[in-house]
Design a protein that fits this description.
about 220 residues; mainly alpha; Arc Repressor Mutant, subunit A; 3-stranded antiparallel beta sheet; 3 strands; about 10% strand
Length: about 220
């Protein structure tokens, strides 16, 4: 029968386990204790299979926790990152299911936070937010739920705020209008909203400025 030939402590509390002189896995102390892995312990072939599988899941889960600690992710995003790191599909499926069961991987929560952030901090319009959610792999019905029945006035207000934070409209006004329209479209505002915001913004400039064109330090239109 296969025999454990080495159990070596590594940095970070990990433990390397060799069987018949070859590296079987690097595992946590908890896994080693649970399996009672000590030198000269005999393992059946099925135990080797099960041990490798559990070790693979443990490594994938640790990678998933690190990725989620960096920022929240959709299920498809996390799946893609774990596959890119070389974790097998069946292992990734088990890990993502476990994270979902634990409430750590939730497309609805991800989508709601994404919408709040992109509307409030990035100044994105509905179309760009929807595209961002689709790119992250959020199901369409979940994305629509997160976007909600946002009324046109609210979207118009956000577009107008974005214009007011930029440079003031200056002659030639037609060129300024085109640049402002392009800016709104890049941010994901629908054409109808962009045109309405432009009309109000230009009217404010014509009437003496008001809020129009008041630059805000740090505001950019970066994509």
């Amino acid at each position: 029968m296969p025999v454990v030939t080495s159990v070596e402590s590594l940095r970070g509390g990990r433990i390397a386990v060799d069987v018949d002189g070859e590296r079987l896995l690097i595992a946590s102390q908890a896994l080693v204790a649970r399996w009672r892995l000590f030198v000269d312990r005999e393992l059946s072939e099925q135990e080797l299979v099960d041990l490798r599988a559990e070790g693979a899941r443990e490594v994938a889960l640790a990678d998933a926790h690190r990725l989620l600690a960096h920022r929240s992710r959709s299920r498809r995003e996390l799946t893609g990152r774990l596959l890119t790191k070389g974790h097998p599909e069946d292992v990734v499926a088990v890990v993502t299911a476990r994270l979902a069961d634990d409430g750590l991987l939730d497309d609805r929560a991800f989508a709601a936070a994404f919408v709040t952030d992109k509307r409030g901090l990035a100044g994105w319009g509905r179309q760009r937010i929807a595209a961002g959610l689709a790119s992250a792999g959020v199901p369409r019905d979940v994305a629509e739920e997160a976007l909600g029945d946002d009324d046109v006035d609210a979207e118009l207000c956000r577009a107008l705020t974005l214009l007011r934070r930029g440079p003031a409209a200056a002659p030639p006004l037609e060129a300024a209008r085109r640049r402002a329209f392009d800016r709104l479209r890049r941010r994901g505002f629908a054409p109808a909203v962009a045109y309405a915001a432009l009309d109000r913004w230009l009217a404010e400039a014509h009437d003496g400025g008001g809020e129009a064109g008041r630059a805000v330090v740090g505001d950019t239109d970066g994509l």
